[in-house]
From TrEMBL, chain A:
Record's protein name: OB-fold domain-containing protein
Source taxonomy: Bacteria, Bacillati, Actinomycetota, Actinomycetes, Kitasatosporales
ChsH2 rubredoxin-like zinc ribbon domain span: 64-98
Start and end residues of each ChsH2 C-terminal OB-fold domain: 101-176
Family matches, as Pfam families: OB_ChsH2_C, zf-ChsH2
TrEMBL record, chain B:
GO MF annotation terms: acyltransferase activity, transferring groups other than amino-acyl groups
Name of the protein this chain belongs to: Lipid-transfer protein
UniProt xrefs under InterPro entries: Thiolase, Thiolase-like, Thiolase_C_2
Pfam families xref list: Thiolase_C_1 (PF22691)
CDD domains: SCP-x_thiolase
Superkingdom as given in the UniProt entry: Bacteria
Domain spans labelled Thiolase C-terminal: 254-371
Length: 192, 379
């Protein structure tokens, strides 16, 4: 499997994260897990069926570590509490470098969606047209996670009839393991 | 800065799906063509500006064309968002005495080359992590996401997007240099075209082009002695809004109020003109939906009114705001928007193939949806 040339991460970012309260940094430990916490040379960029795996950076790694445990968490400022996405080194509101990762309910609404058609990468073309959506999180409407609405956590990208998709439709997060160690949130319609 | 510098030469190669020559050769041809148009010797060139995505380095162009000692060189990021900024950087350098003769250029073999999104190894970090795995693979997918929301919030329709595609195609049908010169577009063709990323169809997407363009910038004083009627850089601006994320601008308060708004505020602040004074506009059109969004951003209409603005032939010759009079990226050539700059110059020289009578002011914009730039030109 090809490696990602840009990955320079060699340690677990969550452990580098400063916590003001002195508690252990949020995020799972690095014990034996591969995927998001792997060092560059081991990092996989595609699943067995050719779908692109997320390529975590230092700031984003905790998101994927939590996702692997079935938790949807978003970075927040440990000082002022502001949620921010995508993750970044410091708080754009108060400039603090201390962060924590807040668990979300997994509830949200479709903000927009597209139906890609070929030409696409082969693994995506096979399932086209499929849906790709942005989901506004209930707790933070300005945070719109990209994802796919599916009929079941491990179903195909085209498993939901596009006619059932509506802007504003409520959805809930589920988790799908794309490859060993790499889990992504996906979305089920609350009213299928 | 206002009216301190002028574009005095424009040059370009043919446009085609495939040109046999290398990007570097095409770059040199366009630059020399522009200098010849200006009547300025290559040895007088002392400044260069291009895009960070331009693969021919300044050192290659300078030594090939026989430039003199170069004292200013600059490259602007964010793909097509940098087009107008290349001219803006040269104008600023000349206005502040850092250089005297500047050349901006873009050379690209996007027609015969690979589609950049097919490369799974070299991805920008934000999309690689947060959007691409979910099948938002291409620029069209990223902009289609904003387009559907735009249609939903403001009642923008596919007919509005068609109005943009048609205006560009009609102008290309008047321009022998345009790739779509002999290819008329009808509403039926548009409405039955294959989808690329719903809600965007084939004709909502720009062309894939091999070609190169360049222009020459000097001080307004020197411009008076040049071969062509000078086109003054009346105002220029770049724009990157707070909490902007590039093409995947999904995590700010209002993703539909993009970089155009930021650039426009600065552009009009630096100008003696207002939107209603603009005779003709060259609006960046990698995708049709960027045009109504830009019309809002640059103040030609109110928020959410960009779709309605396109009605009644507003973008055609004789309409409220004739648009992309060479055919634009949708129908002339897609070279990261540089053809929009050259066409703006032609309009103000009175030499466009779709000339707006007595045009004396032209807005040119760069890519919307990414950190952008804009020029307000006048004759």
């Amino acid at each position: 499997m090809a490696t990602h040339p840009k990955s320079t991460r060699t340690s677990v970012p969550a452990q580098q994260t400063a916590r003001k309260d002195g508690a252990p940094a949020a995020g799972p430990d690095a014990s034996g897990r591969t995927g998001a916490t792997a060092s560059g040379p081991q990092l996989r960029t595609q699943s067995d069926n050719g779908l692109l795996l997320p390529v975590p950076d230092e700031d984003g790694a905790p998101f994927w570590e939590y996702a692997a445990r079935g938790e949807l968490r978003v970075q927040s400022c440990a000082d002022c509490g502001e949620l921010r996405f995508p993750p970044r080194p410091c708080c754009p509101r108060c400039q603090s470098f201390a962060d924590s990762w807040e668990r979300m309910s997994g509830r949200g609404r479709i903000w927009s969606y597209v139906l890609p058609h070929p030409p696409l990468l082969p693994a995506y073309a096979e399932q086209a047209p499929y849906n790709a959506v942005l989901v506004e999180l209930s707790e933070a409407p300005g945070i719109r996670l990209a994802g796919n609405v599916v009929a079941a956590p491990d179903a195909a990208l085209d498993s939901v009839d596009p006619a059932k998709l509506r802007i504003g439709a409520p959805v809930k997060a589920v988790f799908h393991e794309m490859a060993p160690g790499t889990t992504v949130p996906r979305w089920l319609l609350e009213r299928p | 800065m206002k009216d301190a510098a002028a574009i005095v030469g424009i040059g370009q190669t043919p446009f085609a799906k495939h040109l046999p020559e290398a990007e570097k050769t095409l770059a040199c041809r366009a630059v020399l063509d522009a200098l010849d148009d200006a009547g300025i010797a290559p040895s007088e060139v002392d400044a260069f500006a291009s895009y960070t995505m331009e693969e021919t380095e300044e050192v290659e162009v300078a030594k090939a064309i026989g430039a003199g000692d170069v004292t200013f060189f600059s490259k602007v990021g964010y793909g097509g968002g940098g087009s107008c900024a290349t001219v803006a950087h040269l104008a600023a350098a000349i206005a502040t005495g850092q250089a005297t003769v500047g050349v901006a250029w873009r050379s690209r073999k996007r027609g015969s080359g690979a589609r950049p999104w097919r490369n799974t190894q070299q991805q920008l970090p934000t999309p690689a992590q947060w959007t691409r795995p979910f099948g938002l693979l291409r620029p069209v997918d990223e902009i289609a996401m904003l387009t559907r929301r735009y249609m939903h919030e403001f009642g923008v329709s596919r007919d509005h997007l068609f109005n943009v595609a048609l205006a560009c195609r009609n102008r290309a049908n008047q321009n022998p240099a345009a790739m779509m010169y002999e290819r008329p577009l009808t509403r039926e063709m548009y409405m039955t075209a294959r989808w690329i990323s719903e809600p965007l169809c084939l004709y909502d997407n720009c062309l894939e082009t091999d070609g190169a363009l360049a222009c020459v910038v000097v001080s307004a004083d020197r411009a008076r002695d040049c071969r062509r009627r000078p086109v003054l850089v009346h105002s220029a601006a770049q724009g990157m809004p707070a909490q902007h994320h590039g093409m995947v601008n999904y995590w700010c308060d209002d993703p539909l109020e993009g970089p155009a708004w930021t650039a426009a505020r600065r552009l009009w602040e630096g100008a003696d003109l207002r939107p209603q004074d603009v005779d003709v506009a060259q609006i960046y059109d990698a995708f049709t939906a960027l045009v109504p969004l830009s019309l809002e951003g640059y103040g030609f209409c109110g928020r959410g009114e960009g779709g309605a603005f396109t009605e009644g032939g507003a973008l055609e010759i004789g309409g409220r705001l004739p648009l992309n009079t060479g055919g634009g990226g949708l129908s002339e050539a897609y070279v990261h928007g540089f053809n929009l700059i050259n066409e703006g110059v032609r309009q103000l020289r009175g030499t466009s193939t779709a000339q707006v009578p007595d045009a004396s002011t032209c807005l040119v914009t760069a890519g919307e949806g990414v950190p952008t730039s804009a020029l307000l030109l006048r004759s």
